[in-house]
Specification:
Elements: E1 2-7, E2 14-19, E3 35-39, E4 43-47, E5 63-67, H1 73-77, E6 88-90, H2 97-112, H3 117-125, H4 136-146, H5 151-158, H6 162-173, H7 177-194, H8 199-206, H9 211-222, H10 226-234
Length: about 240
Amino acid sequence: MTFRERPARRPGGWIWVSTPGGSARAPVLPDGCMDLLWSEEHGLRLAGPDTRAQPAGAGRGRWAGYRFAPGTAPALLGVPARALRDLRVPLAEVWPAARVRHLHDALTSALADGAPSGRALETAALPLLTGTPPDPLALALLAGARAARPLTATARASGASPRRLHRVALTAFGYGPRTLSRVLRLQRALPLLDAGTPLAALAAEAGYADQPHLTRECRALTGLTPRELRAARKG
C-alpha cells in the first residue's frame, strides 16, 4: 500500500490516503487518535482509539481517513471514545441515518467531480463536525502526558481529582491516563526509532526506565520488539 498524509484544514487534524501498490504498510500503532474512515470496499467507518497495533490496508481499493487530534473526536462526533476502543465500526452504528446519508452523498458527489479521496472526505465531513470544544481537563491530561508529568501533578495544576481525570480520560481518549501516557511515550519513541537511534539512547530520550522497559512496552503496544518494529517501518 502507498500511504500519504497531510495536515487537515481543521487545526490539529490530519488527512491521509492509502492506495494499492508498493510494499505492505507497517501496522497502525496506538496514537491517542480516532479516525473517520472511507474505503471503496467498506464505505464510511469510525476507528476508535487503539491500545494495540492494528493491521494496515485491510481490504481492497482506496482508503481515506480524517484523523482527529487526540481528545477532540468525541465532542465532534458525539460518541465517547471508550465506546469505540480498539474497534472499527460502520459510521451508521454511531450517527443517525440522515447524517450518514448526508455525508455519503456529499462524499460521492465530490468523488464524482474528480476530487482526490482525501480532499473529498475532508470537504464532505467538515460541515458535520460541529460539536463542542474538547473538555479543558482532557487538554490538561494530554499536555501532562506529552510532558511525562505524573497524574498527581496534573491533578494539582487543574484542581481536579485523579478520579475525575480518569473519567475524563476514558471519555476523551478511550482509556485511562496511564495508558494515554504509555501510548504517547511510544509516539515519542517512533521518530528516534526511524532515525536509527541506538536503543539504549532511545529508551532514555523517550522516557523509558531502560532498554528492557522499552522492549516490554513496545511488545505490549505493537506486538513487535523495537528492532522488529524498526524493520517493519522501513518497509
